[in-house]
Amino acid sequence: MALRMAQDMSEPISQDSQRLPSDNRNYPVRDPFGLKIIDSEKFGDQLRKKLEEKNIRKEYPEKKRKTVFAEDIAERFSDLLAENVPQCGFEPPSSGRINILDIGCGFAVEADVVSSYFSGDDFNAKGVEGVSFFGIDNNPESIERVRQKYSSTPKSGYTFILGDATRLEDYPEVPRKVHVVIFRHPKITEDKKTGGTWSKMFEEARKRLADGGIAIFTTYMREEQEILVDELNQLGYEVVIKKKNEQAIPIPDEQTTPISNVSKGAYDGYVLIARASRGNS
Question: Of the candidates 212, 232, 230, 229, which has an alpha carbon nearest to the alpha carbon of residue 278?
């Protein structure tokens, strides 16, 4: 198995770590409250400070403030795709649609940017008819909210399923073959406590990967990524990219990740892209 190390990961992400890629591009950020935040590198810190100064905490509910951060995280996920997918050997289908499966999709804040990216000219070869996005999650609230969001828009090509991703065969809506699988922040450190639930989902995803397809994983912490690599190797994946995401937004000090005993990290802090090993598909 060939493992390509795209970048050294000896240092964990900290609040003061550089968030822009090495080319020093200035990534735009949204400023929905008119707060005049011009430094995208320190967006999160400045936004929190500005919100406190303007007392926006009282004017805007928690749900609204979370939306601001979710939009910025989604945009950075798009940059993550643009930086890494061209390097991983992804092969779009020669005809039909590009099928994308987001496992554990939650509120699917990344759905639009993922669909937009894979709808781009780089992947729309002659005969390709666009993108179909499928999200599956076992949380009724998440699926209900994301269904409501997309039912009120003219967008098509999105399907959200309330279900158990360890048994994809139970859901005929999920295509037999998908070209991109997404796992954002799988709780791999808690897999033993849950009887290997995440490992089962990884295996289900591998079985669905089409030839030339890829699985994209992100984690909060480097330690999670290392555990993930070992797990994927055992399941018949070939890891082709494993690196730190320099554009990731550090998790604020007052928040913690859903991962036990982890209070520091970054949203999509580490990225890993894998393919189904030849002979294991």
Answer: 212
Backbone angles phi, psi at 168, to 5 degrees: -60, -25
Residue 61, Cβ neighbours under 10 Å: how many?
Answer: 10
Rounded distance, CA 246 to CA 243, Å? 9
Per-residue pLDDT of the chain (281 residues; tens, 9 = 90+): 444 444 444 444 333 433 334 444 444 444 444 444 444 445 555 555 554 554 444 444 444 445 556 788 888 999 999 999 999 989 889 888 999 999 999 999 999 999 999 988 777 666 778 899 999 999 999 999 999 999 877 677 999 999 999 999 999 999 999 999 999 999 999 898 889 999 999 999 999 999 999 999 999 999 999 999 999 999 999 999 999 999 898 887 655 555 544 446 889 999 999 998 765 54
- Cα angle for residues 49, 184, 269 (degrees, 5° grid): 50
Cα separation, 110 vs 108, in Å, equals: 5
